[in-house]
């Protein structure tokens, strides 16, 4: 019971930390978006509140909390209150299966740097992400507003259509890595690029062993569907200002609107984390496997073991985890910046163009990618 | 207390939520709330499947049922402008009471049949059976009332009875790992029970005809649904 | 007869069968008592889910993966049936502006 209780406490701490991490990353992301977009548009953005304008988001959050909570007269009250929670919940749940770093071994306990090492990791993430539609539908319908309902229906049909393309584009990667578990995918992406062609192994030593070199088309399809799933520009029509006022969250203000915002940015964070895990090696450092990093730190940990009361192996393990965490954050941060960059660069798709793209372009390309990957794998195995 | 394990607590929690959700599906007046409660019940059932080690089926349940079918229900209901209908399920009439009684009797019948069947096979009604190994179970054809210990090296080949299937297995065993780092990728010949690998091996060998038939059925359903929904409704247009 | 708490709390195959029977009966109650066509369709989905639970429970206890394959097919067919049923409901709504089945009793008697 002792070790069970310790595990329970560690898991609760992990859940709290990661949830707080997501919630506090969102203001940082919004700051990057506002300053970054300002620089792209040749202006300055918020730079008065706090150093570099960093406290602007804190000020905005305080403003949101103090705003009056109102309910439109024709709204369905219960669903109106539930909708922001319904939108935030899947965004938080999807981040559970993402591995942030290597497991750290301290004083005999091994702690996984992900909330749950689910063996069907990637399809669990897709399953829970598909539950995000409920928040949008509930918000749109319960507002009692025709524009909200229209926006909600557009948003939900967009999300459902692009879920298909996203799921199918991943199948090639799944076939290559032969696993659903994200941890195993990262382990399979360590070291130098090496593949078997017609029975003999070839190693390209100047490229890391990343998924993008095996499935470039799938990468393009996945990142496009990722934009559509998170309702980000250029697939921004459901929230399009100037067309639907604010789409499904027109009638929401104050803290409830904030929760929608957090849900959308949470989806963005999970999407970027997935892109790095599937195509860019996740937390692994290019060309070095986690064991090599551990050995590197072991060499340096001997000196530090005298200062702190942990053994050298423990310190090396902690430093390896930290290194990999930094690597993961850098990669994910880069893709988040790409999300923001694309938003302020590309114009918005019209709704029929959007649906055409999802059904008539991405879906056939994903299927074609699947077939070609299968053919390639067959010829790679067979010696002709 | 009383040796309650976390798995037991999980099951009882999920079972409670599922039952309450199902009752609310039937009782709530507004059909949209009904649909949302049904989506909740399906998610909880997915969680129960996960505890039963049916990993792929559990995520499929959430993706297909809670994430697609119920979304379709909710979207259709939101487009209908249903005024509050003259639903009279809340009136105590002899008809309603007899319906409830009949369903209660049927439920008791189902529960009793299941219980008696399980314990009759074990030869000991309602007893707490000690865990047995899988090999013993398959020989004696008994239904253990205990969760068997987690089997991690069940060879799905044992269940095949066909010579053709055995040939398929031999051919599949000859495959080499094609791409990076073979040592860390999940081995495909020794599959855990309930993992996608064992499920797909059975699906694409023994049940491949059913698989293709179901895909044809889905095509027919798609065409039918589009044709029906595009019609102008009623018989006077012929559309 | 003394109530054996241990066998109530410690989860065995019987528990899954009872849960499934209860869910199935609630689904039947929904079909019998509700008048909204779409809620009836939802109760049918609930019944199918209860059956899926039985399949998975037996699959686990007999260590036979065929139960999960059956669940796979039941899920697919239920989804197809829900789609077609909803298309019919949409067609009815377009014509009659309501889906209350007590209004469609022209064939009765």
Largest interface: B-C, 97 and 80 residues
Return the structural class of chain B. mainly alpha
Series of H and E elements of chain B: HHHHHHHH
Low-confidence stretches of chain B: 124-138, 176-188
Low-pLDDT residue intervals, each spanning 5 or more residues of chain C: none
What share of residues are in beta strands of chain C?
Answer: under 5%
Tell me the helix content of chain C: over 70%
Instruction: Give Rg of chain B in angstroms.
Output: 24 Å
Query: Helicity level of chain B, as a percent range?
Result: 55-70%
- Helix and strand succession of chain C? HHHH
Oligomer description: heterotrimer
Structural class of chain C: mainly alpha
Number of DSSP strand runs of chain B: 0
Q: Rg of chain C to the nearest angstrom? A: 19 Å
The CATH architecture assignment of the domain at 1-86 in chain B turns out to be Up-down Bundle
What global shape of chain C is seen? Answer: elongated
| Spatial gap, N to C terminus of chain B | 66 Å
**CATH class designation of the domain at 1-86 in chain B:** Mainly Alpha
Please, what is the CATH homologous superfamily of the domain at 1-86 in chain B? NADH-ubiquinone/plastoquinone oxidoreductase chain 6, subunit NuoJ
- H/I helix tally of chain B: 8
Give the gist of this structure.
The complex is a heterotrimer of chains A (384), B (239) and C (109). By secondary structure, chain A is mainly alpha-helical.
Which secondary structure elements does this structure contain, and how are they paired or packed?
The complex is a heterotrimer of chains A (384), B (239) and C (109).
Chain A: H1 2-40, H2 56-66, H3 77-94, E1 104-106, E2 109-111, H4 121-129, H5 133-142, H6 146-177, H7 182-187, E3 192-197, E4 200-208, H8 211-214, H9 216-229, H10 255-279, H11 290-305, H12 312-343, H13 351-381
Chain B: H1 6-27, H2 31-51, H3 55-79, H4 94-122, H5 134-140, H6 163-173, H7 196-205, H8 208-230
Helix pairs in contact in B: 1-2, 2-3
Chain C: H1 5-9, H2 13-33, H3 37-62, H4 66-96
Helix pairs in contact in C: 2-3, 3-4
